[in-house]
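Anyone opening a protein record will find just a pair of labelled lines. With that in mind, the following record should read easily:
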Amino acid sequence: MINIKGLIAVISLMFLPVVAQAEGSDSGDTAWILTSTALVLFMTLPGLALFYGGLVRAKNVLSVLMQCFVIACVVSIIWVVYGYSLSFGDGGSMNAWIGGLDNAFLANVTRDSLSGTLPESAFVMFQMTFAIITPALIIGGFAERIKFSAMLLFSVLWVTVVYFPICHWVWGGGWLADKGLLDFAGGTVVHITAGVAALVSAMVLGNRNGFQTAAMMPHNMTMTVTGAGMLWVGWFGFNGGSALAANSDAGMAMLVTHVSAACGAMTWATLEWIKFGKPSALGTVTGMVAGLGTITPASGFVGPMGALIIGLSAGIICFYATAFLKQTLKIDDSLDVFPVHGVGGILGTILAGIFVSAGLGGAGFAEGMDMGSQVGVQLTGVLATIAFTAVATFVILKVVDMLLGLRVSEEQETEGLDISQHEERGYIL
């Protein structure tokens, strides 16, 4: 007897669309990277936008949201036009320093082109989200006082002159990759570059009017904590996705990311409790971000015990770095980008060279490497990234200042950037 239901099911399947898969790609790896890409973009929009937006005063909240949103748009366009090619292309005789333009406008990226086990289109999109969030992090250094036009031009020049070359050095086959630098998900490429650029920007623009003489409290901590939660979740794609495969490296990266974030948050809260008598929500989420940023370069190389120590170190060192920058040096890095991301990136990149040791639960040193030589390579990467970023950022700021002027007027700053730059208000007062 004919199974009518089975026959109908078979005929129905014949009319379903066939999903083509590039020959040689791995469907599991591809699915994970597509998911990770969405998670990393989620970190910027809305995660970082809400985190930063809640930290500024109410009169500037829309300006921060707008800056994050527009950076996501303009960097995406630049990435397609020439950013991907400069970061991951073959630079020929200059390949140690920068990629070429053979892949400008993604000329060679087709449905069938591969990057490892991934469709190249998925790899392009995943790496684009890293290029987006890095300049978005910098806006915390000059929040509440920069012209929108200046911020936009600065971001375009900065990703071109700083981000793309350093990305190539580390991930695109450049000189730091040849040396064996360990940077799994962006300690140098993302966090040190963003942190140093934010510090230089804060120093060049100068402090906000009323810094240390008037209260500049976050206007909406609910928004900030919500954004922080989104960052935490998105970071699983940031670090776990950097394995570029659905494998044990991705699983361990997610585990150590979570452990370090939790340890950083609790360490910062405990230090506040001891020093001030009460832990704060702001301190707790800041410690979480410090733990996340610090584990980032080491996430694919260390084990859970290494993550506990890295998270603890991040909570302590970034806590005191924040106080030192504002209270001792009196530098108005408005949203603590350098002491959290910059210092965290430096610390994590160096510690990756220690806790990668198999004897400490890590993945083990590459052939020919030991702890001393690996730490030496890590220090070389840190120092080169700091020096290049600092000099290039300073020059870019001076060029932008000459062309457009960097800072709004005192009257516009007092009025707030929402009105002066966008003729809008975040709230109906």
